[in-house]
Amino acid sequence: MNNIISVPRGTQDILPVESRKWQYIENKLRELSNNFCYEEIRTPMFESTELFARGVGETTDIVSKEMYTFLDKSDRSLTLRPEGTAGTVRSYIENKLFAETIKPQKLFYIGPMFRYERKQKGRYRQFVQYGVEVVGEESPMIDAEVISLAYNIYRSFGIENIKVAINSLGNPSERQAYNDAMVKHFETNIEEFCSDCKIRIQKNPMRILDCKIDAGREEITTAPKLLDYLGEKSRAYFDEVTKYLDSLEVKYEVDPNLVRGLDYYTHTAFEIMIDNPEVELKTLCGGGRYNGLVEMLGGPEGEKGIGFALSIERLLLALESENITLPLDDGIDLFIVFMGKATDYAVKLTNDLRLAGFKVQSDYFDKKMKSQMKLADRYKARYTIIIGDKEIEEDKLLVKDMANFSQEEVSLADLELYLEKQLRGE
Ligand code: HAM
To answer: Whose CA is nearest to atom 21 of ligand 1?
Structure first.
């Protein structure tokens, strides 16, 4: 016998018991997106490597360590997308969405992303992100809407133990002043930091605050705070955003050390954390404003953007840690039990009822009536119909309610209406 081939490290199969949850979650995410007037965008799962190098930033962990990059047969360097913002913005530019009459464009996506990460709970090498991007215009109201959408997604699943951490990363010149102060602050002891931080201090000192290795060091807590380097305009913008968050009743905390792991951010940056001391991996969702990205990727000047992304894997972990069960309907409407010469009749009826919109199953293997009833139980059928020669002859089908075992005789002509009424109350 041949060896079994396993699923690649850091990936998983989603089997029917789990995929029901995924479908429920995805449907709800689509419904919320729709209510907030976001429209779906679908971009390729791989893009030119340069898109992420330029968009996400060469010094980020994502680009420097975690990308699945390969050469195709024509020697083009391609990368499995590690995130959705760069691809969405590329598409926005390439398809001239900036010329649309509705601005900003409010977009969302659901799809797999790929990062070569160390495997641990909540960290996968293929994971599914739901994300939104609002591109074209800027307003503190938009920032607050985006944060509120992310916050209320969790609440709509019953996850109440969450908090939003928010910060402002200012504009590029404010960041430059801040980065200079960071270099001054860290340079004395930089030799004691990890090898990545020694590069970060030269290329992007702010990223030291995001280091997973040096996270506990005193220099990190005492580091200069970006909020102190904001000019009047940026500070006022940030204050407006928090004002709207107050009126939208979003619970948030200002975290001056929040820098995020991607380079494109300016001004508002935020993360949503699970507020439960027993959960190790706390970040559920992250996002922020990226006012320079459209231009950086070759688009027109002044096109500003903001968005966030969350993974469904971590949403599921949060549901688990908060002991929330999703209200899934995993049963079927009807199981058709048949005997004698009723096979043809049952096969046709099963098909007709399916096409009429009911979830219907019947047996394929000439099983005894008792075994068919057992199967109906396994399928969690709400109703069964028992059909034999006599029932067909007299046109009286025996419909049984499996919750209370009451039975009623219904003619074939009345069956659909009867089921409709019983199942949907119509
Ligand atoms: P990010 O913080 O890199 O941001 O990822 C966003 C979310 O994706 C994380 O909070 C987490 O829920 C999930 N995630 C990231 N890596 C993994 C992983 N290895 N396994 C499971 N889940 C993971 C972005 O990706 C930005 N594009 C967000 C954004 C959109 N900013 C503006 N617009």
So the answer is: 123
